[in-house]
Amino acid sequence: MSEELLRLPAEQLFQKEIDALIAAEKNPVPTGWRMSPQSVKTYICGGKVGKTEITPKYIGHERLVEIAISTLVTDRALLLIGEPGTAKSWLSEHLTAAINGDSTKVIQGTAGTTEEQIKYSWNYAMLIAQGPSHEAMLKSPVFNAMETGTIARVEEISRCASEVQDALISILSEKRISVPELAIEVAAKKGFSVIATANTRDKGVNEMSAALKRRFNIVVLPAPANLSSEMEIVRTRVTQLSQNLDLNATQPTDNVIEKVCTIFRELRCGETLDRAQKVKGTSGVLSTAEAISLLCNSMALAGSFGNGTITNEDLAAALQGAVIKDEDKDKVAWKEYLENVMKKRGSEWSGLYRACKELTV
């Protein structure tokens, strides 16, 4: 059955690694956790336990991972902040998978998220027929996490309306939810916490209040520091993602990954990697996550309409869609980049330049 699912939760995808860490556990395990903080770090950052190789899930500053894990040992909630594509959601999912074995208690923050989705709502047919009852109550992921002493995730919290964010303040402060319709109050069990993520590009949507920020320990996840680290992240995630998709293509070579990451970093930073030339930026973020998506799309093109190996034409088609979000502004910036930067990089880049040039009319 799992083979038919498009995407497995992290606790199923890496079940062997989690089971190996639990079986080999020698350190104290906090209440409600399945493994110790040290084992959670090994699961996130990679290592070896017995004969089992633990693949790294997050490639970056290990100290930030330690701060995030130690926060969840306390009664404080955790807020992961960063640019798009800095693996906030990915880290959040894997932390809950390792700690609780369940990463599915998720609220996706949007402009349409309501306070009921943070607390609870009702099955209105049962409510009308029987009145308020436990059976008629529809519990939110946060409510379920409080009852079971586990961790709930709130994605893109800054996209939620202010009143929805405020609903979390009392939950994080008092660690309880009041249900006046049933005249009860549900207190959180030990182990309950919340991991929220916020995008620094969305600061102006619904900025979090100081009162809510005080309820969180904040960890800022930086963008990859250099080209090699970004390439490593992209390579790892493309390999993992493509295993669950019928792309019928070989993995991108290091040369292909390097070209994509170089283009993204230069357009993102507004200058070439050697800092010798300024580059006009584009309206898109061009994050690491988008580079991963671009390469998966290139593999799909190569597997469906080519010989299974990514060509310059496949890469150019995917780049066109990723870079040009605003037809007027981005097309000008992309054309300038092609002529002023890519064209001058010699024979190694000439094939990609010609393929991109052909698409950019």
Summarize the structure in words.
- It is a single chain.
- The chain has 361 residues and is of the alpha/beta class.
- The protein folds into two domains: 2-221, Rossmann fold (3-Layer(aba) Sandwich), CATH 3.40.50.300; 227-359.
- The chain contains 16 helices and eleven strands.
- β8 and β9 form a beta hairpin.
- α11 (227-243) packs across α12 (254-269) and α11 packs across α13.
- The protein is globular and about 75 Å long.
- The mean pLDDT is 92.
- Please mark out the parts with pLDDT under 50 across 5 or more consecutive residues, or reply none: none
What portion of residues is helical?
A: 40-55%
Q: Report mean pLDDT, rounded to a whole number.
A: 92
How many strands appear in the DSSP assignment? 11
What is Rg? Answer: 23 Å
Could you give me the name of the CATH homologous superfamily of the largest domain?
A: P-loop containing nucleotide triphosphate hydrolases
Amount of beta strand: 5-15%
In total, how many domains does the architecture comprise? 2
State the major sheet: 5 strands, parallel
Order of helices and strands: HHHEEHEHEHEHEHEHEEEHEHHHHHH
- CATH C-level class of the largest domain is Alpha Beta
**Strand-pairing-aware structural class:** alpha/beta
| Count of helix runs | 16
